[in-house]
Design a protein that fits this description.
Layout (H helix, E strand, L loop, with lengths): L2 H14 L3 E7 L9 E6 L3 H17 L6 E3 L6 E5 L3 E6 L1 H7 L1 H5 L6 H4 L5 H7 L29 H15 L12 H12 L29
Helix pairs in contact: 1-2
């Protein structure tokens, strides 16, 4: 069996029984005994045995060869020998103690690359899923047209401001500039000149004594 097809079958068999922390390594540069190593974890003796049995059965159904199966009596570490590939199924404590990833993990193989497009599972995942039209989110929405924002026209005052500043700069510093009076100011001045001035009587002081009027009686001459 082709090594790519074999690794695909093994990964699928481990995932079917909920294997945890599945990793796959390429070992062609380290040894000539096998080309791939797979490591997976099982939470109990029962699960490790079930994972090993799933790998064995799936490989045989695909036409592969199972060379040997070791560790089923205890279930702490079950090894499945597939010739070109070795599968280690371990409980978390045993896996952490032996650390096979540090020995064989120079070239990890991505699980996505292990599943080729030729497999039925990969072909089914590649097919576009039909969306239900009952949901508003799945309904086709009309394309939104871009809104063009109009820029406000420049104010005329802003354009006239530089001209005013330039005119102000022309006046020499230190010289007085005579400004002609407006018509309203001229008319007000002439009106004040035309009216006669009234004599203002001096007000008598408050402490002054009242003036006495003297009435003289003229005696008539008797004849």
């Amino acid at each position: 069996m082709d090594i790519k097809k074999l690794q695909t079958v093994v990964v699928d068999a481990l995932e079917d029984v909920k294997g945890q922390d599945i990793v796959l390594f390429d070992t062609t540069h380290l040894t000539s005994l096998f080309d791939r190593i797979a490591v997976a974890s099982g939470t109990s003796n029962r699960q490790t045995k079930a994972l090993a049995a799933s790998v064995r059965d799936k490989v045989k159904e695909a036409g592969g060869e199972v060379v040997g199966l070791e560790g089923e009596d205890t279930g702490e570490w079950v090894l499945v020998d597939l010739g070109d590939m070795i599968v280690h199924i371990m409980q978390p404590a045993i896996r952490q103690y032996y650390r096979l990833e540090e020995i064989w993990g120079d070239k990890p193989v991505k699980l996505g690359a292990a599943k080729r497009k030729s497999t039925p599972e990969a072909a089914e995942a590649a097919e576009p899923k039909t969306k239900s039209k009952h949901l508003a989110a799945n309904q086709e929405q009309p394309e939104a047209k871009p809104v063009r924002e109009r820029k406000p026209a420049a104010k005329k005052a802003d354009a006239a401001a530089p001209a005013k500043k330039a005119a102000a700069k022309k006046a020499p510093v230190g010289k007085t500039v005579k400004v002609a009076p407006s018509k309203s100011e001229t008319a007000a001045v002439e009106a004040t000149k035309a009216k006669p001035k009234r004599a203002v009587k001096a007000a008598a002081p408050a402490d002054a004594a009242p003036v006495k009027k003297v009435i003289r009686r003229i005696k008539k001459d008797t004849e």
